[in-house]
Design goal:
The structure is a homodimer of 343-residue chains. By secondary structure, chain A is of the alpha/beta class. Chain A is built from twelve helices and twelve strands. Chain A folds into three domains: 44 residues, Orthogonal Bundle (434 Repressor (Amino-terminal Domain)); 132 residues, Rossmann fold (3-Layer(aba) Sandwich), CATH 3.40.50; 130 residues, Response regulator (Rossmann fold, 3-Layer(aba) Sandwich), CATH 3.40.50.2300. Chain A binds a DNA duplex (30 and 30 nucleotides) through α2 and α4.
DNA sequence: AATAAAAATGCAAACGTTTTCATTTTACTT
DNA sequence: AAGTAAAATGAAAACGTTTGCATTTTTATT
């Protein structure tokens, strides 16, 4: 494949607009970047010229000059999954409102891939970037720091995070779900979690749950900690096998996706939820509320996080300063619904 | 807020790399763009210099010169919804493999907003763009044509589409679901569809279903065509009210999201599916297979479409030519499962 | 060993803006 | 009406690459 070079073809540039409007290119540029500085008739002439010509400014050319692209990056473990889609949409919509755009990519829970993606985004000159959680390689941070590009961690919250973060307290979410089951009188409880190796959110939830259980003197056999990917099918399959043989009275699912799978499995086996088994999730994804039985879970305010992440990054980029509130906690909400009950 | 200008700070440019490697900037540039043209020792010196300096190329500067940004746009109605997430992920992943990135935005089924987004992406210099379906304003196409930017329509398929398209035959999907219910002996059937005003996919499905019903002499009272947004909660609420009063024996749901809502509603009311009511969807989204009862639906190969869309756009951008196969149909697959039964 | 052809490299002019600095125009004082 | 301050505009030099053309180096040929 030989190299093509795109000719500008029919697309007019700022110079054509300036010529037609009878002003200098500088003035046209100002018309866009500092609208209030160009006055009355000049203003109108430019507006008309641009419209007549169908001019669309080339922000890249500007970027080259002043270093700001108006594009922000968001790197998530996965797009195709209820988990982050609300976050993505909110983040994107907020940027759109502020006349910026979003570059997004998924790394599939592979941190080396994440590093590669950061690099690739940097090549495209982003004004800031949001990463999920705290588990990352060191390299991307060096690259970002050298270029003074704002980074924030999103989705998880730690009081003394090293980088600005906006998220919820996943440890607390874990405590809550465990606490809830304990209060309902459950003593034989199983936990279903994904591999927590490079997933601090899951790890924190699990710690929260386990610590709470231990604090309440609830003993757990090692085989009561199950590993399961965030996948309905996998969860359903796992559940079916676990439910065959002396199942616990309650399951703590690391997130709603797993919980959905477990509920479907119960329905499939004719096990009554919450009659025979209680199931609790974390996330409150779309649909959890409408499931039958409606899922007891912890609501993670993904929209709020998305909006706040965008705003924070925008401000960091504008001021060049870290946010005044370094670690921002977004409140969780416990959603007691129909999938758990007193024993 | 006063203007900031980002100083390049610690970030080295191609010139620094060249200096350190003892070659000209042109050679460094070639090292990246035509790796095979720069040889042995030179090659190694550049590689080392770049690594030592932590050099990251600035693709924007290059774009300015040759017109290619390596970024492609994807505009969808909504991100936060099972419908398009698989497509988005596949499209993005494919571009990533080819060292490109994706700019994505959602217009919320608002075509004027879509036009604004296209403009905004154009300002960022994309190499190509994919839009969902065939319902669009004329403006974006003019802007794209003037600049000779490849566009494709994705998700829907029409034999003689005016622009290159990759998608499935939604009309056929509509026929299939209707046909299936007819074969099972249903005669009182309701359709649950979103507003089809600016949604050609839904419109085509509805036409397919209605035409098939009519061709089989099945009469439908006007109140058997229900309107419902793609939202589980809305669908469940609607279903609950409809199911109270002489419900039909089967529901055709425009997509699986609506079907999920209907199934939950039935469970909630103690109505047996498929015993009392048959429910069929379109989409085969994640989870439909695992629902209880598993949802009978039509699989839309979102992943295949995403990959093929990326490949097609890439080729169009590389060659400057329309794809040899102008309209690409992706086969549907009928998934007969447990939510429908013979009457 | 000399010559021709091919391969690798360097030079410098783009690419389309933004922005500093200088200049012109306008608005305000008295 | 003159003078001054403020506002609007223009000229030209960046921004960090890529690439056509020219030059140098290497390789192949005789």
């Amino acid at each position: 494949m030989e190299k093509r070079t795109r000719s500008r073809k029919g697309a007019p540039g700022i110079i054509e607009v300036a010529k037609l409007a009878g002003v200098s290119p500088a003035t046209v540029s100002r018309f866009y970047n500092a609208p209030d500085i160009v006055k009355g008739p000049t203003r109108n002439r430019i507006e008309k010229a641009a419209a007549d010509l169908g001019y669309i400014r080339d922000r890249m050319a500007g970027t080259l000059h002043n270093g700001f692209s108006g594009t922000f990056g968001l790197i998530v473990p996965t797009i195709d999954n209820a988990i982050f889609s609300e976050l993505i949409e909110a983040f994107s919509a907020r940027l759109q409102e502020r006349d910026r755009t979003m570059l997004i990519a998924a790394h599939g829970y592979d941190l080396a891939m994440e590093t590669a993606i950061v690099r690739s985004l940097l090549e495209r000159r982003i004004d800031g970037i949001a990463l999920i959680g705290f588990d990352h390689e060191a390299v991307p941070f060096n690259m970002l720091a050298q270029r003074d590009i704002p980074v924030i961690s999103v989705w998880n919250y730690h009081k003394d995070s090293k980088i600005p973060c906006i998220g919820m307290d996943n440890y607390k979410a874990g405590q809550w779900v465990a606490q809830h089951l304990i209060e309902l009188g459950h003593t034989d409880i199983a936990c279903v979690f994904p591999d927590t190796k490079s997933n601090d959110r899951a790890r924190d939830r699990l710690s929260g749950a386990l610590d709470t259980l231990k604090a309440n003197k609830i003993k757990m056999a090692p085989n009561r900690i199950l590993t399961c990917a965030y996948d309905i099918g996998a969860a359903k399959t796992l559940a079916k096998s676990v439910l065959q043989d002396k199942p616990p009275s309650a399951f703590i699912c690391c997130n709603d996706v797993i919980a959905h799978g477990f509920i479907y499995a119960c329905q499939s086996l004719g096990i009554n939820v919450p009659g025979d088994i209680s199931i609790i999730g974390i996330g409150d994804f779309g649909g959890s509320e409408h499931l039958e039985p409606a899922l007891t879970t912890v609501r993670l305010p993904a929209k709020r996080i998305g909006v706040q992440a965008a705003d924070t990054l925008l401000k960091m980029s504008d001021t060049g300063l870290p946010p005044k509130q370094f670690a921002q906690a977004i409140d969780l909400e416990f959603m007691e619904r129909a999938s758990t009950r007193k024993i």
